[in-house]
Amino acid sequence: MGDEEDVINGEEIREVEVMSENVTPRITHSFYIMVKSDITHNFTNDHVAHKIQYELTTIKLLTVEATNGGTLICSFLCKNFMWRMKGVNCMADVFIMELNNCGMVLGI
User: Fold this and answer.
1) Structurally, how many domains does the chain consist of?
2) Residue 76 maps to which CATH number?
3) Whole-number Cα distances in Å, 63 to 18, 19, 41, 79
4) Contact status, residue 59 vs residue 74, Cβ threshold 8 Å
5) Which of 27, 76, 99, 108 is the most exposed place for a label (fewest CB within 10 A)?
6) Where in 1-108 does DSSP place strands (E)?
7) For the chain, what is the mean pLDDT?
8) For the purposes of burial, counting CB atoms within 10 Å of the CB of 21, is it exposed (0-12), middle (13-18) or buried (19 or more)?
9) Burial category of 1 from C-beta neighbours within 10 Å (exposed 0-12, middle 13-18, buried 19 and up)
10) Is the pLDDT of residue 77 over 90?
11) Domain interval for residue 27
């Protein structure tokens, strides 16, 4: 993956690198992130969280309405999830769910 940006169905897609500070040696994993202006939460794919070995916190079930009208359930939160996008280090709490088309959805 290069330093790419694209737009799919009106959504901005960016390549990012996820970092883990709690694992030695440091693990990195690149994937695509969808930036959405109409949501208030951040989500990452369950496979990304497990690969990077972040600690997950069990939460009260959160039901999320998908763009296609379906619903998804989140039962875990990853606190202080770190990623690098366009050379900038970022950190936020993210909900864990099964995402099919990207590694992360970032609400702005």
Assistant:
1) 1
2) 2.40.70.10
3) 25, 27, 12, 19
4) yes
5) 108
6) 5-8, 11-19, 28-36, 43-45, 56-65, 71-85, 88-97, 104-107
7) 75
8) exposed
9) exposed
10) yes
11) 5-107
